[in-house]
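Consider the following assembly input.
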Amino acid sequence: MNTATTTADAPTQRTFFQKVRRMARRQPLGAGSAVFILLMLFVALFAEVVAPQDPLDMNFADQLIGPNLTYLLGTDELGRDIFSRIIYGSRTALQIGFISAFVGATLGLVLGVTSAYLGGWFDLIFQRIMDVFMAFPLIIMALAIVSVFGSGTWNVIIAITIPFIPKCARVVRSSALALRDIPYVDAARASGFSHTRIVLVHMVPNVMAPYLIMVTSFVGQAILLEASLSYLGLGVQEPTAAWGLMLRGGAEQFFESAPWVAIFPGLAITLAVFAFNLFGDALRDALDPKLRSM
Amino acid sequence: MHKYLVKRMLMMVPTLIGAAILVFTLMHMIPGDICALRYAGTGGSFDAGLIEICRDELGLNRPLYIQFFSWLGGFFIGDFGESMWTGRAISEEIGVRAVLSLQVAIMATIVSVIIAIPLGTISAIRQNTWIDYVVRCFSIAGIAMPSFWLGILIMLGLLWTTQHWFGQAWIPPIQYVSPIEDPIGNLTQLIWPALATGYRYSAVATRMTRSALLEVLREDYIRTARAKGVIEKLVVNRHALKNSMLPVVTVIGIEFAFLMGGLVVTEQVFNLNGLGKLFVDSVTNHDYALTQALVMLVAFIFVMMNIVIDLIYAWLDPRIRYS
Amino acid sequence: MQGIRAYAAAAVGVGMMLTTGAAIAETPKYGGHFTYVVPAKGPPSFDAHRETTYAVIHPVRPYYSTLLRVNPQNPADPADFVCDLCVGDVPKGTNDGKTFTFKLHEGVKFHDGTPLTSADVKASFDRIIFPPKGVSSARKSFYKMVESVDTPDASTVVFQLKYASTSFIPALAAPYNFIYSKAKLDMDQRWYEKNILGSGPFVFKEYQPGAFMTGEKNPDYYLKGLPYLDKITAIFANKESIQVQALRGNRASAQFRGFPPKTRDDLVRALGDKANVQETDWNCVLLATPNHTRKPFDDLRVRRALTLAVDRWGGSQYLSKIAIVKTVGGIVYPNHSLAATKEELMQMDGYKADLEASRAEARKLLEEAGMDLSKTYVFNNRGVDQPYKVVGVWLIDQWRQIGLKFEQKVQPTGPFYATLRESGDFDVSIDFNCQSIVNPPIDTSKYLSSDVNPANYSRVVDRKLDAMYEDMLLESDPAKQRVKMRAYEKYILHDQVTQMITLWWRRTTVHRSHFKGWKVSPSHYLGQALDTVWLDPDADK
């Protein structure tokens, strides 16, 4: 472990702790949000341990009770513990958020880079297809997917993932277009490497910055989209604990007499999305201050 | 310039046809049909033969490809057909709602610009100070809130404050009045959704203004201007702001396009009879004709907006010339 | 009409006034603009002969007259009918109850000034009962007993029946039976889908698609002294929160469908004596429908176990606090003279007093049937909160008590009905029977074999069931009909468990107390002519 005096001229030798502190000073919002996201991950992974009660347990004697020591955030209309449901809900939210963000952005990455690399007719047709998806109202897509396949968590993920693909593909493609003609890609081509290899090994790593930024911003968007779909009755279904779903039935109905039913899940969503957006902002500043096409 | 415009217009056609194929396929994949829904959906008794009469009436018993081409064909000669649910002309159904949606979209965009430009500018000038942090938190909080939750909070806030301060609960009118007939009534109804939406949508524009300004502020000619002793305020207003408008205009334009057809959730919360609500209703009714027309409309607005943005680019930045 | 009066006697004390006001007779005041919210997306077409939704009835009914209607002073009574376009009392059947003669009001005019005569009444009912090819009449089957509609003179209409039937007069009083102008129908049978021309208490003024409909007082209304209001506006507001806020903020004075109990409590708390609450049982019920073509639900023992596991009496207590359901009943609307009494209900499986014994028996039956308890079965539900999802969650919990695992498959309305009607991809499903006028002999046709009535989604085919229904339907003596109804009901719910009744809906309406003269009825389709309602501006002071 080095002394503090070395930090200025030897950044590689900073301790992890020092790096964190430096990050916290330069990007206090980003660091704060990172901590919050880690906390959320922890809670989601260890929901069984953290949650005081079974989120599915109905207790008809305790319908719509305000926050107290037994029910920290009160109960909903079926007498279920809201605190526990929010804890388990973070699992649903992160599952939907991470999977759709990761899958959507990755497919977008591969398609975007490929399209930029191949160019020509492929690129032109691919661009038109992406246009169609960009111009297509998300809600119709979601409604159709949920109506056709049913409204389980996985179908909600599919519905949310699809619109992410063209969004990411478009951004990645424009970054990758610049790469196509740079010498080392040319060199790779001249060396007879396969297209797949050139795309994966030589081009993809160079568009990681916009990709990562897209992923973080998608996580927050996915959580919000799930909430909106649930509000329209197309999201995750009972009895799964999910934030958007918790805001649906009871929330509006009992907002005045039992505000806790609506306030806490709404806050959970807001905080989670807030954290991911702040983190994404910090990441953007750190990785690519010039990137602004989103 | 003309040649460029014509080319762009032609490029629209494949996108629109693609959207048409997609919406037609998706809608027909959803199980259930409008006729069964119309009669079985209310739980009452109905005559079993009705569903067949209804399907014949709507042409749903024709082969799918005939349904598709007769729809698309009608579309190209400007005949949008009739809503399958109400039997009214689709142009009439959409017309009534489009007025409202357009108004809300314009108002929300104005709100969003009023919030975004000053906040983004302050945030950029005072980069990495507490003001910057507060501004960023404020704008990100807007986009982090579920729109319907924000809407419900606004409505309940109105109810609660009017009840406690004036002794009489007040909510905005729930019945649309035209801005020409009753401008104040119209404003009292639409200002709330416009505020909610405008605030939400200001987040992206604020960020864009901030980062664009930061970038421009670093550029050489601004440094020159500063060196010449021009006070900083002027620098920001005249030179920097004008150039950084480009990406901001893009973002606002795209958002406006989304607002026109995308206020699905907010319209539900405020009971606005706009295009978003019509969208949800027509999909849940399995009203193929209306849904398809709406999708085409939204896709068209989106594509047109992209062209308009390009033109604004050219107008704002004389260096860009399309040929 | 002895039969109908007999029903009336059984239905005393259904409606219930919870708060101040309307119960005491007051002198109605004239004038005012009455605004109400319609909890729907807006009507499909305006033609009530064709449509089945209250989204047509609530906004459009005030512009039309009907031949008969439910007594607006006593709508809670499921068998109290009065004349609307006809004069005097509801006619009694002559010729062994096979001929009904109606005398019409003199000088009735459509809103365009043309006279309304018996020819218009005949044209309207011919369209409903014997629709020409290509014309949609939703409730044609209600009128199977009608032989012909005749018009001996311009103010007399005679219905000739094939056989006497207790269900004829109630069917005639259905709120959908708008009297249309023969001239317009002759011109175009579908004219009424997009246009409104009636002879009702209000004259149609404007409709903005999906938003609102307004009308003004009809100065030439044939019921003298009515209506009281000057102007009416129906605003479409699909979301319950909007309806509640509209009442709170006085943007609307009423919503005529009903609110869940918690919403009622919130409104009463917020509005105090400015809220007027009325409650009654609702002529709507949720069923649990097993799929008879799916193993193991084709096994009577399994179906019996399902119904035995359900604690209806307990469910009534706690579900009624959160959902729009309450009364335990059989297949007949609970307050009707044809309905089972509590004692009669308690004879049947799933209604018995000793719940634990019932559930023990259910577990035994499952074991005998060799039911695979490790499997998760599909419970198909409709994506509507009140009361579908609440009742669905409750039912699954009830079946969990006997070791059965169900997972809820919630679908939007379109795909939900596609599953019920076409694919049949469910083990057990929620289903819904909801009628306007209380007319049990016709309402219970829902439970006929699926090949006879496609609206029975259980896919049961049982000729004995159909024969029992037919026997009950054709019985013209109310007492004997009641006995036959019991047998039909017991066969459905106990002997064969073709379908299960959960709990009957509970209708709770909340109005601003300045809105007067309206009384709650067992159906949100009834009592919506709005000619006898009025506004009292003093009530807001």
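Chain B has two domains: 35-79, 95-316. Ask yourself how this observation constrains the way the partners meet.
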